[in-house]
């Protein structure tokens, strides 16, 4: 695993969140060079990353991020998009709120992926990768998750279609679909999150990061298309 990531140039969005931080830390440990991006108020980035603060639902901030990555990394091999905002159901959220969720959970993925692929193409290595974190919620379709599922359902269809568009260039696109994760996206304090993880009702963020690292360390020609990971006792309604 370490040899396959050594000196790889990586951008992780949502990098100060539970999963993003774990991914960035593991990438660094394996010898990669990492830019970690998140909103300005999120400051818990993995030690050793180059950090960027901005709202990636806005194209000008996406462009700023990738200009920053150009300066820090001198190119790009892997994008890992981990941004995720929770949401109330459509009729329980105001218009600004649902637009913010769609911008964060879907628009940022599309904008960052386009800029990432431009740089992967320019690098000419032919083995770049885009890893997009979706959610199994799009399969469960639970009451109250209409807005969230609109965003993550968009990510799933985007990833599955883009993969076909990119395969002729050797650029792999992977969709990771986690179940409930014991991070602060859940509306519970730390002690309750730990209890959910211990009861196998939520995934530790580290386990989702391991799934992402598995996809990121397959050799060229081995394409992890969709990887679904969930706790043993995942709620289904």
UniProtKB/TrEMBL annotation:
Q: Name one Pfam family in it.
A: adh_short
In which family does this protein belong, per the annotation? Belongs to the short-chain dehydrogenases/reductases (SDR) family.
State the species of origin.
Answer: Croceibacterium soli
Q: Spell out the InterPro entries in the cross-references.
A: NAD(P)-bd_dom_sf, Sc_DH/Rdtase_CS, SDR_fam
Traced from the root, the source organism's taxonomic lineage reads: Bacteria, Pseudomonadati, Pseudomonadota, Alphaproteobacteria, Sphingomonadales
A single Gene Ontology MF term assigned here is: oxidoreductase activity, acting on the CH-OH group of donors, NAD or NADP as acceptor
Top-rank taxon of the source lineage equals Bacteria
Gene3D superfamilies assigned to the protein according to its UniProt record, in alphabetical order: NAD(P)-binding Rossmann-like Domain
What name is this protein filed under?
Answer: SDR family NAD(P)-dependent oxidoreductase
């Amino acid at each position: 695993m370490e040899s396959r990531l050594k000196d790889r140039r990586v951008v992780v969005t949502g990098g100060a969140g539970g999963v993003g931080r774990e991914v960035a830390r593991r990438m660094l440990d394996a010898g990669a060079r990492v830019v970690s991006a998140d909103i300005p108020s999120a400051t818990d980035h993995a030690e050793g990353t180059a950090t960027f603060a901005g709202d990636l639902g806005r194209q000008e901030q996406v462009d700023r991020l990738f200009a920053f990555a150009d300066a820090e990394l001198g190119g790009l091999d892997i994008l890992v998009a981990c941004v995720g905002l929770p949401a109330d159901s459509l009729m329980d959220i105001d218009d600004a709120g649902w637009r913010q969720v769609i911008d964060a959970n879907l628009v940022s993925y599309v904008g960052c992926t386009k800029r990432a692929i431009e740089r992967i193409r320019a690098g000419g290595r032919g083995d770049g990768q885009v890893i997009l974190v979706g959610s199994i919620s799009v399969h469960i379709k639970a009451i109250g998750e209409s807005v969230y599922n609109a965003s993550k359902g968009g990510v799933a269809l985007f990833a599955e279609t883009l993969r076909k568009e990119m395969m002729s260039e050797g650029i792999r696109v992977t969709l990771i679909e986690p179940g409930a994760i014991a991070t602060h996206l859940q509306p519970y304090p730390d002690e309750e999150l730990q209890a959910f993880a211990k009861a196998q009702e939520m995934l530790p963020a580290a386990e989702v990061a391991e799934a992402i690292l598995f996809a990121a360390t397959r050799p060229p020609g081995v394409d992890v298309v969709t990887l679904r990971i969930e706790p043993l006792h995942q709620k289904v309604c």
